[in-house]
Specification:
Elements lengths: L1 E7 L6 E7 L2 E5 L1 E4 L11 H6 L5 E4 H6 L3 H7 L2 H5 L5 E4 L2 H6 L4 E3 L4 E4 L6 E4 L1 H11 L3 E2 L12 H24 L10 E6 L5 H14 L3 E4 L8 H12 L8 E3 L5 H9 L4 E4 L1 H7 L2 E4 L2 E4 L19 H5 L2 H9 L3 H27 L3 H12 L6
Parallel strand pairs: 4-14, 5-6, 6-10, 10-11, 11-12, 12-13, 13-14
Antiparallel strand pairs: 1-2, 2-3, 7-8, 8-9, 15-16
Helix pairs in contact: 6-7, 7-8, 10-15, 11-14, 13-14, 14-15
Length: about 375
């Protein structure tokens, strides 16, 4: 992987960059649609690509459990299995182990857990997680880490942080010494900075990971229940320790204002299930805030969901029609609103990149947040 820092905004830490992988180029700041089960829910891969996605994210924990690695290996890797030709990032599944598994037992060696699907017991080491992702063939891999929830005592956060560092060292060593001839030849590995809301733990973790020389760095353990101001403080403080010449990824950051605030603090990559999850539940993101399309006020509203949006949904269908689809429990409604939301997030990233390029990011931020805050007053 090659990361090129093209430009930094003159009035902020916002960065314009480019990541080159075996499966294509990712322009940053980049939003990555989430395909947890190897699918971005409700959408055809071609529609996601046409919406502007240059990379998607999938989840090691879920794919390991179902369909299982034998199937994906036989398919020739994850790209071929899901017919996606662009880059893929796979997270380690650590967060899912801690949030979904029925029972789990952590040790310095690894994690034992029961599947949330069938209750079957599994044990994974950091080395196992690297092996699984090499079989998947993702372009960017994440090491096994321990994520804690908010609030968390400092003693607990420190134990998790130190275990994350230990696992990161083992993951990197295994990755460098046991490279497989998998479907993707030029995989890279990012480090994950943990430390909860404690600045000294965050700085210690960041410094240890930098010494390991990962290809990029992610900030984990944010957006797990903290207030927004605390999230922004963690991102800014942690990003200050990370190398300028490598990409920075804020894991799970996914609301439009949060993305803009994170970009301002020097973050390059984002992912979240928000666009499709909200879309399936009848909420659309627009340039003037969120719209709950089931509301009666849209029954005879024949305007586009967002008149400033160029997606297939907004070019062709009205709010009234979308409301009808949801109230009639028609699947098309879920698909159209999910497609719009994914497009909206990808378009936001495009507009952010243009603003940085023109040294107008601060002005763009002010204008966007002012309009977005107006909510449903369209």
């Amino acid at each position: 992987m090659m990361f090129e820092l093209i430009q930094q905004d003159k009035k902020s830490k916002a960065r314009l960059g480019r990541i080159t992988t075996e499966h294509g180029v990712i322009n940053t700041p980049a939003f990555m649609p989430v395909g947890t089960h190897a699918t971005i829910k409700g959408l055809y891969p071609k529609d996601v690509e046409e919406a502007g996605a240059e990379i998607m994210l999938s989840n090691t924990y879920h794919l390991f459990l179902r369909p299982g690695m034998d199937i994906i290996r036989k398919a020739g890797g994850l790209h071929k299995f899901i017919s996606w030709k662009k880059p893929i990032l796979t997270d380690s599944g650590g967060y899912q182990v801690f949030s979904l598994a029925l029972l789990r037992k952590l040790s310095d060696k690894g994690v034992e857990f029961q599947s949330h699907i069938d209750g079957f017991k599994h044990f994974l080491t950091p080395e196992d997680v690297i092996d699984i992702q090499q079989d998947l063939g993702s372009d960017i891999m994440m090491p096994l880490d321990e994520c804690v929830h908010y609030p968390c005592t400092k003693d607990h956060a420190e134990i998790a942080m130190k275990r994350t560092i230990s696992w990161a060292k083992r993951s990197y060593k295994h990755f460098k010494e046991h490279k497989k001839h998998g479907p993707t030849k030029k995989q890279v590995l990012f480090g994950i900075v943990q430390g909860a809301t404690y600045e000294d733990l965050r700085s210690e973790c960041a410094k240890e990971l930098i010494d390991i020389d990962f290809d990029g760095f992610s900030i984990g353990g944010v957006s797990v229940g903290e207030p927004s101001d605390l999230i922004y403080n963690i991102l800014e403080y942690t990003a200050n320790f990370l190398p300028v010449e490598k990409p920075r990824y804020a894991m799970g950051i996914g609301y439009p204002p949060d993305i803009i605030e994170a970009v301002e603090r020097g973050i390059d990559m984002f992912d979240c299930v928000v666009p499709t999850r909200y879309g399936r539940n009848g909420t659309g993101f627009t340039s003037r805030g969120k719209i709950i399309i089931r509301n009666a006020q849209f029954a005879d509203d024949f305007k586009a969901l967002d008149e400033k949006c160029g997606c297939y949904c907004c070019r062709n269908f009205s709010r009234a029609y979308l409301r009808h689809l949801f109230n009639a429990q028609e699947m098309l409604g879920l698909t159209l609103l999910s497609l719009h939301n994914v497009y909206f997030f990808l378009d936001l990233a495009r507009k952010i990149r243009e603003a940085i390029k023109d040294n107008q990011f601060s002005e763009f931020k002010k204008e966007f947040l002012l309009e977005y805050a107006k909510g449903q007053a369209i």
